[in-house]
Write a structure and sequence with these properties.
Helices cover about 70% and strands about 0% of the residues. The mean pLDDT is about 95. By secondary structure, it is an all-alpha fold.
């Protein structure tokens, strides 16, 4: 008798969270063009998502919106995996192509997240835990801020829950069909945020090889391969599409080197910004870029030569790897600083300040979100212990930590990289709260 009521309650919490996000887009932080402090100004990754979605709707191609804005040229781009731009492009195609339109469309994934995490946690630990998880997901600033800012993490969040759900269904019944669903769930998440690809190692391998006592070695091999093949089949159209249109080999994204170069200079390896990202394109690097690819950084924008995105990325990747090789003795310290920033245990005040002065994430939600992150930490530990005592495996939830630590170590430390960890913490903390 309580089951329908619990489900209705979770859906109601999801609707309340959705209404809050809509209010926040329209009232709390409305779109503004002049950079007002209390409003939202389209910039950075969000500018790319918004512009690419509109170009995709018009031309049915994934193009670079920044180059189109600057020069009017239509240049192929794979700056991000395809699903978030495709979702926004669907709204653009039917006339909702404005910045506020896309921000409102992004809030839908906040509703999906709240309902999904509530229902998943309810299945894992009961009605009270499910309701607690839904409430936490609805109010946690580090989750809803991604919808407001038009970041792909907003769409990514419910797919993180989908991966959890698929993994725990496999734990209940470790069949081939269910491991295929795990592979599909990871592939869908990867098509939104590329770092999820590493979960084939961090989640699937320990899940299949260390905990499935009923499976013999041959079956474990079969299921591991099935999981990877299922994911590869889902991602293959995007991989083939990329390698037909770029000069150099491209996988999920064509900006791996561009991300790496933002953390491959002295400014990101020393001083106050140690472990964070900086603009590493100094005069020396610009000169090397001009020598390798003439016209890519001219004094007069009218003389700019637009190169294939994969060619630019190859230059950036080679420069980043060269810097790593020249400074490999310092890398362990830098990697620890990056991981510490993502976990908010290293130079916390600097990271927080950068969030609202550079990343535009506003001071109030960033500060409250940081406080809630710390508040959930002890409950997360207690919830994990309770789950272990009940005989529940923690592998799917705990796999979020090595995934994010790996991504941070090879790039730089950002709070928004930590979204999968925040979701796992909500699930585990809700188990403790219900207890």
């Amino acid at each position: 008798r309580n089951a329908p009521r619990a489900v209705h309650l979770i859906v109601g919490i999801g609707l309340a969270g959705w209404l809050f996000r809509i209010w926040a887009v329209l009232v709390y932080r409305p779109t503004w063009r002049t950079g007002a402090a209390d409003c939202y100004t389209l910039a950075g990754d969000a500018l790319y998502h918004h512009g690419q979605a509109n170009l995709l709707a018009d031309h049915f191609r994934y193009l670079n919106p920044n180059i189109h804005l600057a020069t009017g040229e239509l240049v192929d781009s794979a700056g991000d995996p395809p699903l978030f731009a495709a979702y926004l492009a669907g709204w653009s195609k039917i006339g909702f192509d404005g910045v506020t339109d896309h921000r409102l469309a992004a809030t839908f994934w906040g509703f999906v997240l709240v309902v999904a995490i509530g229902l998943f946690t309810r299945r894992l630990a009961g009605n009270v835990a499910g309701a607690a998880a839904a409430v936490l997901a609805a109010v946690h600033p580090l989750l809803w801020i991604n919808d407001l800012m038009l970041l792909s993490e907003g769409m990514y969040q419910p797919f993180v829950v989908l991966m959890f759900w698929a993994a725990y269904e496999w734990i209940r019944e470790p069949t081939r069909r269910r491991i295929v669903l795990v592979g599909i769930a990871i592939a869908l998440a990867t098509m939104i945020r590329a770092e999820a690809l590493s979960l084939y190692g961090f989640m699937v391998l320990p899940l299949v090889w260390w905990g499935a006592r009923t499976l013999d070695t041959r079956e474990k091999v079969r299921q591991t391969l099935l999981c990877g093949i299922a994911g590869l089949m889902l991602m293959s159209p995007w991989l083939v599409y990329n390698n037909l249109r770029f000069e150099k080999p491209v996988t999920i994204s064509a900006v791996t080197g561009t991300v790496m170069i933002a953390g491959a200079c002295d400014g990101a390896w020393t001083g106050e910004s140690l472990g964070y990202w900086v603009n590493c394109f100094d005069d020396e690097l610009i000169a090397e870029l001009e020598e390798a690819l003439p016209g890519s950084w001219p004094d007069d924008e009218a003389d700019r030569v637009v190169y294939d995105e994969s060619v630019i990325d190859e230059f950036n990747r080679e420069q980043a790897l060269e810097y790593y090789q020249d400074n490999w003795q310092r890398f362990p310290k830098v990697a620890l600083a990056r991981m510490g920033r993502s976990l908010e245990v290293y130079r916390v005040s600097h990271t927080l300040r950068m969030q609202y002065t550079v990343e535009g994430r506003w001071e109030e939600p960033s500060t409250v979100g940081l406080g809630l992150y710390y508040a959930l930490a002890p409950f997360t530990v207690v919830g994990g212990l309770l789950m272990r005592r009940r005989g529940q495996r923690l592998t799917p939830l705990l796999s979020m930590w090595p995934m994010i630590m790996f991504a941070s170590a090879i790039t730089f430390g950002l709070t928004r990289y930590r979204v999968p960890i925040d979701i796992a913490m909500i699930v585990m903390a809700s188990v403790a709260l219900s207890w």
